[in-house]
Amino acid sequence: MTASPAEPPRLRRSADDRRAQLVRIGLELLPTTPVQELTIDEVARRAGISRSLLFHYFATKREYYTAVTRAAADLLWEHLLPRPGTSPEERVSGMLDRYVGWVETYRETHLAFVRGAAGGDPWVSEVYEETRGRLVEAALDALGLPDDARRRQLILAWFAFTEDLVGQWALEPTMSRDELLALLRDVLDRLSAR
Question: What is the pTM of this model?
Fold first, then answer.
């Protein structure tokens, strides 16, 4: 009688590694599932753990959703940032192009993020406002504009316009992608010149 090969010993993950794994699973699900619709059971199943063990790492569903939302916002931020040494013109155009691509890829998730913030979900609003603030600073820097209250307010208004138009365009394109990008840039240039 031959002994069957022993299963390799399971490696215990540190708490930080397990939390990172659970957030990563949430991020993998985001292209098809808005964060508020992620099921804890599905995340736990994919991680190979029980639902109750997931709550050992995240005390509540809201805490887990906040961690996934923050991680997604960080990915968006990293995706939009221009490479060092990029000219100011290319920084703005590149950020716009990458933003449109992001919304095309993650439309439902992005809309859930924007609507969740607008709907008053405090955990989404906090992450959303932080992300918007960072994007405003990046836009002001890329445009070579001073960071004052008036310009900040104008750029924030432009972001709201951009989010809505790009979200609608991704659902029903009424112009070419190049026309969309040119329109967004034209509005930005007009606002930033004031």
Answer: 0.74
